[in-house]
Amino acid sequence: MRLDKFLVACAVGSRTEVKNFLKSGRVTVNGKKEKSAKLQIDEETDEICFDGQKLDYEEFVYYMMNKPQGVISATEDPKHKTVLDLLDDYARAKEVFPVGRLDIDTHGLLLLTNDGKLAHALLSPKRHVDKTYLAQVKGIMTDTDVETFAKGIPLKDFTCQPAKLELVSIDTEKDQSLVRVTIAEGKFHQVKRMVAYCGKEVVDLQRLTMGTLTLDEDLKRGEWRRLSKEELEVLLESVQ
């Protein structure tokens, strides 16, 4: 790997900043000052330091975010704030991206990584990775709706795979239902459209799980953290 690319990946600075740091002698390779951006280094065996601090290279990084409402699940958007805007410089330098998408008004679990192989495995229609949502619904969901979800709902543009609808709580006075929905696909507005097919309306939607990942209850909306070693191991095992 080129030295300048390594330094950018370690979030030392932009490519332009990195070249200036090299010129000013702030970077050492195996104890010697190095000024060539083009130098080929071995990120596994060479010791690269910036201002005397050893830099550790990670090829892939994995983050769990509690996505807030009003933020786009994209790497860039001309009109709205994106989930990348919530991350720090290091995460952005690693060129992470959201795995799948949550609608702008949907909140909850979102995985961000730069591991394209994992992302493809999780999103592949062949794998049927379960995703669970908690939905606040205007209207009373019934056992009949549970059966309708289980059969697979025919929408205008596609027929949903059989899905699991659980009635968490019913408030007849307020004409509201709290339900848990588990689907193995993730079409545009799918949960909202499935509920609408049953004659009700989703007024709040939160994703709780994706595959083996479960939203950390300690993460406030807009907060994020690295996956734990255990979470990552289980997740990678699940797609092998």
Give structural attributes:
four-stranded antiparallel sheet, 240 residues, isomerase, nine-stranded mixed sheet, Alpha-Beta Plaits, Structural Genomics Hypothetical 15.5 Kd Protein In mrcA-pckA Intergenic Region, Chain A, RNA-binding, alpha+beta
Biggest sheet architecture? 9 strands, mixed
Instruction: Give helix and strand order, one letter per element, not per position.
Output: HHEEEEEHEEHEHEEHEEEH
Rounded to an integer in angstroms, the radius of gyration calculated over CA atoms is: 22 Å
Oligomer: single chain
Query: Structural class of the helix and strand makeup?
Result: alpha+beta
**CATH homologous superfamily identity of the largest domain:** Pseudouridine synthase I, catalytic domain, N-terminal subdomain
Low-confidence stretches: none
Please work out how many helical segments DSSP would assign. 7
What is the rounded distance between the termini? 28 Å
For the residues shown, what is the average pLDDT? 95
CATH topology of the largest domain: Alpha-Beta Plaits
Helices and strands, with pairings:
Blueprint: H1 3-9, H2 15-23, E1 27-29, E2 32-33, E3 48-50, E4 53-54, E5 62-67, H3 89-93, E6 97-98, E7 107-113, H4 116-123, E8 131-138, H5 143-151, E9 164-171, E10 176-183, H6 190-197, E11 201-210, E12 213-214, E13 224-226, H7 229-238
Parallel strand pairs: 7-11
Antiparallel strand pairs: 1-2, 1-3, 3-4, 5-7, 5-13, 6-7, 8-10, 8-11, 9-10, 11-12
Family: Belongs to the pseudouridine synthase RsuA family.
Domain RNA-binding S4: 1-59
Protein name: Pseudouridine synthase
